[in-house]
């Protein structure tokens, strides 16, 4: 199989990334490389390093066919090498000890600092309402999703993010517990047709220095 690990400079990656909706259905990305892509994606920042994301990788064709109508019959769902569902974990606090214990083991903080941080975090989260927690989770899953698409492009693959799908049906079909919020689906694979180029607003139309002008 052709080696598509073509690492590119960052400027090329961000300029050449496109939302691709047409994929070569015969091309497959190995599970090992998908794991590597996700590992690099999870280097994205998150609030207090909580990493409140989970991923379901659909690379089984029968399951992609099951996902197809849920995703409004978007052809890339069945043709791409895989579809990655990015979920937000509303109960991310349950992994606090694991995350900070690993930081102690790596020598990034002392056990005393870790215990102080965890105590502060737990008391802060106890006072937050559900809406604020969910907003933070959605923000962080957006960061990891964008990083995932850039990592894929750097390796020579193409992606498209899909927010237009039936999230309730997705949860029902794939038995997603209530603690997880489906955010976006990301198709990844080898383009059979290039994505359409798009334009952006001039930076002077969206940039303000030191406050909004009227």
UniProtKB/TrEMBL annotation:
This is Nitroreductase family protein. Residues 14-190 form the Nitroreductase domain. The keyword Iron does not apply. The lineage of its organism: Bacteria, Bacillati, Bacillota, Bacilli, Bacillales. It comes from the Bacteria. The keyword Ribosomal protein does not apply. GO terms for molecular function: oxidoreductase activity. Keywords: Oxidoreductase.
């Amino acid at each position: 199989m052709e080696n598509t690990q073509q690492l590119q400079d960052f400027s090329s990656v961000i300029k050449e990334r496109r939302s691709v909706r047409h994929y070569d259905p015969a091309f497959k990305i190995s599970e090992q490389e998908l794991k590597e892509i996700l590992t690099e994606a999870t280097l994205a920042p998150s609030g207090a390093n909580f990493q409140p994301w989970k991923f379901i990788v659909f690379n089984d064709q029968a399951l992609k066919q099951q996902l197809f109508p849920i995703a409004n019959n978007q052809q890339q769902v069945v043709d791409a090498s895989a579809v990655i569902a990015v979920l937000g974990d509303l109960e991310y606090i349950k992994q606090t000890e694991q995350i900070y214990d690993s930081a102690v083991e790596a020598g990034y903080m002392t056990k005393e600092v870790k215990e102080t941080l965890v105590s502060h975090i737990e008391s802060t989260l106890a006072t937050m309402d559900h809406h604020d927690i969910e907003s933070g989770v959605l923000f962080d899953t957006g960061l990891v999703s964008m990083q995932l698409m850039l990592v894929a492009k750097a390796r020579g693959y193409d992606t498209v993010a899909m927010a237009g799908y039936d999230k309730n049906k997705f949860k029902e079909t794939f038995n997603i517990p209530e603690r997880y919020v489906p955010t976006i689906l990301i198709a990844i694979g080898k383009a059979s047709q290039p994505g359409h180029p798009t334009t952006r607003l001039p930076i002077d139309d969206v940039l303000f220095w030191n406050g909004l002008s009227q």
